[in-house]
Amino acid sequence: MKGALLLLLTVFSAAGQSQSTPKETLLQRLLRIAGLTAAPSQMRAPDSQPGDIWLVALPDGMTRALTEGGGYRSPVFGPSDAFVYALREDVVVRIPAAGGMPAQQGRAPDVVKLVGFDGPDDLVVLTEAQPPESPLALLSLKTGRLTPLPHDPKSAEELRLIAFVRGDERVYGDTRVYTRTESRRTALRTTEWTDVYIARGTAAPVNVSACQGVNCSAPALSRDARRIAYVRAP
């Protein structure tokens, strides 16, 4: 009797394990958090200049500055789109998307880029950690604790995605936001800068920043796909 009961419990346990939700991989987690829908195929890692955070409304293309004084980089939208979060030196700041004063959320001395939110108070970030350590970590805005995320340095797919996260291109379904180098030639010299573009489906890409000689970078699409935050250099 005891043997039969033990066998029955073993069967139920195995069935429960087979029906449990598979553990999310780092690759799947990054795709979800960064708003991406597929692992990218290109490695792009340009250096973005700090500046002020600007917002462009879609589809009318109206732009406005959210900050002044410069020094901001790496904007991402919060879970509700009501706030834009960014880095200023080694501090995470929260900026009302409707306008208002930025509020400091805590120091992040080893963080080089914000990737996106994993829950209401946790940010996935890119750090200065060198291989084989994981460059990705979870930053708690409540406690300030930085927890490295598990990472397989031998996974070519993970390495490709991390390289992509360092860059300025994001793909959300059939929508792509990215930067493109522009140039203007005069009799004396050629001026180059980067602008922010959006491409939806098969429609022609649209320049939404029109920075006219000033570098604009680090675009991030809001969750409702109605706004893009980006950095405009001084």
Q: Helical percent range?
A: 10-25%
Please, how many helices? 3
User: What's the number of structural domains?
Assistant: 1
Query: Using only CA atoms, what is the Rg?
Result: 21 Å
Major sheet characteristics: 4 strands, antiparallel
Mean pLDDT across all amino acids: 83
Q: How much strand?
A: 35-45%
Based on Cα principal axes, name the global outline: globular
Low-confidence stretches: 1-21, 39-46
State the strand order across the main sheet.
Answer: 2-1-16-15
Give the class from helix and strand content and strand pairing: alpha+beta
Measured between the Cα atoms of the first and last residue, the distance is 79 Å
Number of strands: 16
Helix/strand order = HHEEEEEEEEEEHEEEEEE
Write structural notes for this entry.
This protein is of the alpha+beta class and about 230 residues long. It is globular, with a radius of gyration of 21 Å. The protein has helices at about 1-20, 25-35, 155-165, and strands spanning about 50-55, 65, 70-75, 85-90, 90-95, 105, 110-115, 120-125, 135-140, 145-150, 170, 175-185, 190-200, 205, 215-220, 225-230. The strands form 4 sheets. It has a 4-stranded antiparallel sheet with strand order 2-1-16-15, with no helix packed on it. It has a 4-stranded antiparallel sheet with strand order 3-4-5-6, with no helix packed on it.
